[in-house]
Amino acid sequence: MRIMGRSRSLLAALAACLLLAGCGSGPSQVGSAVIFSDREVTVDQVQDLLDKAVREQPVAQQLSQQHKLDLLGREIVRQLVVHDVLMRAAQREGLAVDPRLLDQFLAADPLADPVDTAGADPSQLAQQIANRVRDHREVITDSLLLQALGQKYLDRMSVTFDYTSVSSDIGGDQPLDRRERAIAKAEEMAQSPTAAAEVIRADAAAGERTSTGEVVPAAQAPDLATLVLFGVQPGTVVAFQPSQEQAVWIVAIVRERNLNAPSSGEQVTQPSAGQLAAIGQRLLQPYVEEAGVRINPRYGVWDPVAMNLAPSSAETTGAVVPVKGAAQP
Predict the structure, then answer these.
(1) Is 1 helix (H, G, I), strand (E, B) or coil?
(2) Is 98 exposed, middle or buried (0-12, 13-18, 19+ CB in 10 A)?
(3) Which residues are CB-neighbours of 98 under 8 A, at least 6 positions away?
(4) How far apart are CA 176 and CA 165, in angstroms?
(5) Which stretches of the chain are assigned E, i.e. beta strand?
(6) What is the reported pTM?
(7) Helices in 159-216 by DSSP H: which ranges?
(8) Is the torsion defined by CA of 269, 270, 273, 279 positive or negative?
(9) What is the pLDDT of residues 304-318, one digit of tens each?
(10) Per-residue pLDDT tens for 98-144?
C-alpha cells in the first residue's frame, strides 16, 4: 500500500508545530514528515493520524493533556518508515502474506479495542495507539512480513566482529558518561582500517573487556540477532548498550556479515513471533539507508541503533560509523 502525497498546507504545518515538540524543520522539508529517494510522507498525513488518535483513543487524549503527543508523532513516523522500507524488502525478497491468514487475523481484529493503559509506559502506549489509527490490514501485514523476513534469514545469518567495552564514566574537568565515551571510541576506531585493532589492543592491555573474532549465528542467539551488529555492513563500527539493565556499552567493528551461512542445526529454541519480527526489522536497516530516508527535525532524527526515532542526535541509543578507507560491499 503506497502513501500518496497530498497538497502541502502551510496552515497544517504550523498547526502540527503547535502539537509536536521541537518544530524546527528546514525550508526544504517544511511540508514533509519523511522524504524517501522517490516519494514523501507529508506532515498532513501524520497530523491526520494524530487527530484521529485524539478523537478515537482516550489514552491519546491523556498524552495530549500531558504534552506527550510528540511521542506519538515519532512513533507514527517510525511505523511509516518501517512500512515503506518493508515493502521494498518484501518485493526484493519475494515475500508475501497469505490472504487467507490475513483475513483470519482481521476477522478477530486484535486492534479493534481501545488501548489498555494498565501498567504501560508512554512509549509503549504510543506504539499501540499508532497501530490502531493506521489501516489495520496494513499493520497486520507489516507484522506478518517482518516475521517472514526474520524467519527466512534466521538459520542463514551470522556476524563476525571484534569488540571492546566501556564500563565506567570519566570525571574531572571534562566529564564523559558511558554513552559519550562509547561514541567517542567508535569514532576513534573508525578513523582507519587499522584503528579498531589498535584501540582494542590498548583497551585489552588496560584491563577492559575485549575480544576478537567473535562469531554469532542468529539461530543460536535470536535476541542478539536483533542488535545493530546484524544490520550493518562489514567495515562498520557500532556503539550500543546491549541491555538497559546493565551499564556496560559495547563498541564493535563488524568484520563479516553473512546472510548465506550454512545452518548449524543448533537452534536453541524456536524464536517467538516477536523475536522474528524484531530480527526482520533489523534486516531492514540497509534498506533505510538505500531509501535515502530523511526525517523532518520536528519529529526527531533516525536512530539506526534502535531502528527508531530519537528526539535529537544527543539522545540516540548509540552510533553507527563506517570505517574511513574501508571497502564497503
Answers:
(1) coil
(2) exposed
(3) none
(4) 15
(5) 32-35, 40-42, 158-166, 211-217, 236-240, 249-258, 294-295, 301-303, 308-310, 318-322
(6) 0.86
(7) 178-189, 195-205
(8) positive
(9) 999 999 999 999 999
(10) 999 999 999 999 999 988 876 567 778 999 999 999 999 999 999 99
